[in-house]
Amino acid sequence: MNIKSYLAKKKAIVDKALDKLVPPAKTFPASVHEAMRYSLFAGGKRVRPILAIAAAEALGAKTSDLLPLAGSLELIHTYSLIHDDLPAMDDDDCRRGRPTCHKVYGEAIAILAGDGLLNMAFEVLSDPRRTKAVSANRLLSIISEIGAASGVHGMVGGQAVDMESEGKDIDFPTLEYIHTHKTGALIRASVRVGALYAKASEKSLKALTRYGERVGLAFQIADDILDITGKEDEIGKDVGSDLKKGKKTFPGFYGLEGSRLRANEVADKAIHSLRDFDRKADPLRELAKYIVNRVN
């Protein structure tokens, strides 16, 4: 299959759904809504919602009713980027090839835009008009899954340890904690959301969970490599920002070649997790390859 064509098709579907979920930019208070949409529609690849869709498709489920749930994952991901870019955190001026949210709207509005996106995600998830096709028990499991991945046991915890580790000679378990929580937790949750939506059996859910964990780790290793080897016009942000901030990364432990080998090894293990799935899981298999070979 052509993974680029698949991604483009699914991205268009997700973007259309997101446009309906988020109020128009001129909605009062316009400053916050405009900032939310500025970051949300800045050109993201929509990897997380697409992983949820692909996981559901792997189980043979129709995904039209999954779109609000998948969209909520992108709302949360975008909130995390806005907050990560703030001067108090990673202090980045550029994201996806254009000025970060706080550079355009100021820190206060950027913080509120991130808060707005995070809370809107759970507003969407708990809206019976948007989630009526999902049973109450499954919906509660999905909300719990996303909440845990977004909070102190996931992204928040990973970001805290990441910031506290800047300029320090951390050990590998600490780096792995950062990667599996700051980035990996929401990716893992995205796959599980698709599986839970599709009423996965216990065996299938375990397999897809392993896939999600491995793809999440591969994604962050690839990010670490791109921070050194990427081109600014392709990755949309400053190259070498991790090194400038004194962050320990995979290449810092294993070198570039060792990191590439590890990323491919983890991606191969992710694909192996799907050995009992038929060709409906091919998008997931191709996504694992795409994640480690991407240029942005």
Q: Mind explaining what this structure looks like?
A:
It is a single chain. The chain has 296 residues and is mainly alpha-helical. The chain has helices spanning 3-21, 30-40, 47-58, 67-84, 101-105, 107-125, 128-131, 136-150, 155-164, 172-197, 202-229, 232-235, 241-244, 250-272, 282-293, and strands at 94-95, 98-99. The protein has one domain (3-293): Farnesyl Diphosphate Synthase (Orthogonal Bundle). It contains 15 helices and two strands. The chain has a two-stranded antiparallel ribbon with strand order 1-2. A hairpin with a 2-residue loop joins strand 1 and strand 2. The radius of gyration is 18 Å and the shape is globular.
Give a brief description.
The chain has helices spanning 3-21, 30-40, 47-58, 67-84, 101-105, 107-125, 128-131, 136-150, 155-164, 172-197, 202-229, 232-235, 241-244, 250-272, 282-293, and strands at 94-95, 98-99. It is mostly helical and 296 residues long.
